[in-house]
From TrEMBL:
PROSITE patterns: RESPONSE_REGULATORY. The lineage of its organism: unclassified sequences, metagenomes, ecological metagenomes. GO terms for biological process: phosphorelay signal transduction system. Pfam families: Response_reg. Residues 53-171 form the Response regulatory domain. It comes from hydrothermal vent metagenome. This is Response regulatory domain-containing protein.
Length: 182
């Protein structure tokens, strides 16, 4: 899975053909995506289940619960699970195959750095998007986790608007809220 921000950057750089809407959003034709993937040796995956599966991994039960409620309430096509530590996460990753991991860096036992490294080292899970979060948001920690393969590292307390944008849910949520109810 590729983040919407990455896809937009590819379009801005002219690497993939895209059409701009009047409000500045990008639209992609499927055959353009197929061509782009073929040219770069990428594999397009087709998930019959169109739900986005998100696994929140944090030893802070309150934050995990808050994020679960926030994300579950956005869209019925989002499935959210939580894990309280890296060991619990490994089991849920194998059975639930999440598309996105919201991963705390500092947890007892198996920390976020180790979980990220394991996922990115395994061909079966390396496509999983990983967004990390930490109360220890230092330049060293950010550089280390990005080098291991995370897509982003957010400081706690989290800015939920930024989180939703990173997840690709920010604009979709606004559009859903703006639609008149039936």
């Amino acid at each position: 899975m590729v983040s919407p921000l990455t896809l937009q950057q590819w379009a801005r750089n002219g690497w993939i053909s895209a059409h701009n809407t009047s409000d500045g959003q990008y639209r992609f034709l499927y055959h353009d995506l197929e061509y782009f993937a073929h040219e770069r040796g990428l594999t397009l995956t087709h998930d019959d289940d169109n739900r986005t599966r998100i696994l929140i991994v944090d030893d802070d039960f309150q934050l995990s619960g808050y994020l679960r409620e926030l994300l579950s309430g956005l869209n019925h096509n989002i499935e959210v699970e939580t894990a309280n530590d890296g060991f619990d996460a490994n089991g849920k990753i194998q059975t639930g195959q999440p598309h996105i991991l919201l991963l705390d860096l500092m947890m007892p036992g198996l920390n976020g750095f180790d979980v990220c490294h394991q996922l990115k080292s395994n061909p079966a899970t390396q496509a999983t998007r990983i967004i990390t979060m930490t109360g220890y948001h230092t330049p060293e920690n950010v550089e280390r986790i990005l080098n291991v393969g995370a897509e982003a590292c957010m400081a706690k307390p989290l800015d939920t608007d930024t989180l939703l944008i990173l997840l690709g849910l920010g604009e979709e949520t606004k559009a859903t809220e703006a639609r008149p109810s039936k």
